[in-house]
């Protein structure tokens, strides 16, 4: 497979995963903005801008930071390269470039999604929550079509690799923004304390877990009230939660040998395997108390730096012409 083709497949899946993760983040912001007298309301509204690095671009519009303006900028504005519509457009353009490498069902899923999405700025959307659900459903449709119809070849593994690299990055960024909520809540508890969450805390943890499809998993594992320490453990260290950092890194480690085997070079991507293995081992043997002692923000900053190094290594090993 040509490195250019591999790059287009890799970024096609990353952009689609990014669109889904962005609406999950916006969903949290929207839910918390509906709470009466919510604490840190402006911080919550600014969170998607901070995570995507678009705070300065939004500020240049000279528009007040309000929920409706934030939604239009982050969801429907094609002039914002980090918006949901921009991600869907980029995913479709990459899919078009590799049309011969993907199945008809995959192409129809991603092409029809873009054709419908581009009409939203003109005719509007029925509801904000309905738009979030629509994006998630279209992402699930494409992922299901990929899993159910695509031959397990180079294209499949590069698509899967892009999905989990993007998912790990987005989970870490979302957690990083929320770390100022996690750490103060945990710092007030001794090891024997029983958490007594306030209503705002409960809704904050609930919204965060729901945004990562982990609310049911939390109650299945802990069967207790929500608290920051357990949320941290679940979303970073649990291998059985699909959007946790450990689950994503475990998938990456499992995918890399498939790519190398098909490339027919034993030493190809050695740096990629080393970096991915280091991340996976750090998570496999990590302890939540050590993360909290270091500070959630500090720990996640280190993770994101290592994740960026991994992304660079993947690009140099597989996605650039030698």
Please describe what this structure looks like.
Helix 2 packs antiparallel against helix 9 (154-187), helix 6 (104-117) runs antiparallel to helix 8 and helix 14 (270-284) packs antiparallel against helix 16. This protein folds into two domains: 1-150, no CATH class; 152-322, no CATH class. The protein has helices at 3-33, 41-52, 55-59, 67-76, 84-97, 104-117, 120-123, 128-149, 154-187, 199-211, 215-222, 228-237, 245-263, 270-284, 288-294, 296-319. By secondary structure, it is an all-alpha fold. It starts with a helix and ends with a helix. Residues 188-196 have low confidence and may be disordered.
Protein traits:
single chain, 322 residues, mainly alpha, 2 domains, 16 helices, 75% helix, 0% strand, globular
Q: What's the assembly state of these chains?
A: single chain
The percent range for helix content is over 70%
Number of beta-strand segments: 0
Mean pLDDT: 86
Query: What structural category characterises the helix and strand content?
Result: mainly alpha
Q: Assess the beta-strand content as a share of residues.
A: under 5%
In sequence order, what are the helices and strands, one letter per element?
Answer: HHHHHHHHHHHHHHHH
| Count, helices | 16
Largest sheet, strands/sense/barrel: none
Low-pLDDT parts are: 188-196
What distance separates the N and C termini?
13 Å
Global shape: globular
- Round the Cα radius of gyration to an integer and report it: 20 Å
Counting structural domains, the number is: 2
